[in-house]
Amino acid sequence: MSDVVPPEVKPKPAVPAKPPNVGAPSPSSPFPPQGQGIGGGVGVSAPPPSGIPVPIGSHGLGHGGSHAIGHGVGHGAGHGGSHAAAHSGSHGHATSHSSGGGSTLLGYIGIDTIIEQMRKKTMKTGFDFNIMVVGHSGLGKSTLVNTLFKSQVSRRSAGWARDEKIPKTVEIKSVSHVIEEGGVKMKLTVVDTPGFGDQINNDNCWEPISKYINEQYEKFLKEEVNITRKKRIPDTRVHCCIYFISPTGHSLRQLDTEFMKRLSHSVNIIPVIAKADTMTIEERQEFKQRVRKELEMSGIEFYPQKEFDEDMEDKSDNDKIREAMPFAVVGSDKEYQVNGKRVLGRKTAWGIVEVENPNHCEFAQLRDFLIRSHLQDLKEVTHNIHYETYRAKRLNENGGLHPISSNDTQESNL
């Protein structure tokens, strides 16, 4: 018998699995079925009926839709920085997971553009920064501020005479200056305190300073409780108080301790050792350690306070800053030629003390800390901690401040 060859059985063609989000719409969805327009580059489904919004990220219409078809990504309308974000990593796909464990939508949404929006708005409006300098006459307070902001914002630039006599009591002098860098405008107000600690009897010489700080809080509070409030309340609150310690090399004076103890709960105090070039490096390190120990024993908390650290990263960064404080600084607004470069410095018989050289002093650390890393945090701590403390106290004292209408304001001015 001949072998019987069974008829050849042809395998059935495999039916491709239906991708998610393709097919009949769910009963709760108002949208029609979509084709493989997302990520596959096969085609784009028909647009939904008029009046039905297109879900964000479903078609990637960042630049009219043409560029987004091949990638299924899109670039976000009007965001100059999102082009690079959309092609980095996994093409910038945003994933949206429903709470019920449903399907995942891929596509660029544009959430990251909020940073660019905030930047543009800040650049338009600008912002305020108010800094107070406190210390004896002759410690270089005005010079240090000029050096920090590379501008003539000291009291001398306001037309005050160099031979002006020391006031008999502490006076409060403020001068404002608009600084612009990289398109960002900042209204810098420097509050000077001539006469502080210069008298034979310095009892309660911190009271005018404390009164000034609270007056700025009160001014802001009254603007806040007005019925017709300004869209942007002028901010004259003191965001930072730099306290200048004399480079004695011994210890803090009683006045230093008393001032910082009384004002540390109402303003951000940053202690600095002035004219650090009058001490050797060994003397400077010993003096810094002694000052830190005395501040700790007196229970004085300077900025950045430990209880305001938001997370472990902040704590790690701020611990390094606290270990380096008080910064031993040298200020100068004069330039000298050193090794073919123009540098800010102080000329001595032994050479040039370079202000921004970390081997000579700690001015660069103070500048980076004050301006480049913690300026915004200084403003936030002032508003959220010190101002809120004052606000709560005032409202509790008066049983709540009554809102001031525009008519009341006009009557009070008459």
From TrEMBL:
Looking at the keywords, is Cytoplasm present? yes
Q: Which InterPro entries match?
A: G_SEPTIN_dom (IPR030379), P-loop_NTPase (IPR027417), Septin (IPR016491)
Provide one Gene Ontology cellular component: cytoplasm
Residues covered by the Septin-type G domain: 125-397
Q: Where is the composition biased (Low complexity)?
A: 82-98
Q: Where in the cell is it found?
A: Cytoplasm
State a single Gene Ontology molecular function.
Answer: GTP binding
- Gly residues composition-biased segments: 59-81
Q: Which SUPFAM superfamilies match?
A: P-loop containing nucleoside triphosphate hydrolases (SSF52540)
Give positions of region: Disordered: 1-102
Pfam family for this entry, one: Septin
Q: What are the entry keywords? A: Cytoplasm, GTP-binding, Nucleotide-binding
Family under the similarity heading: Belongs to the TRAFAC class TrmE-Era-EngA-EngB-Septin-like GTPase superfamily. Septin GTPase family.
Q: What is this protein called?
A: Neuronal-specific septin-3
Can you name the source organism?
A: Lates calcarifer
Q: Which gene name does the record give?
A: septin3
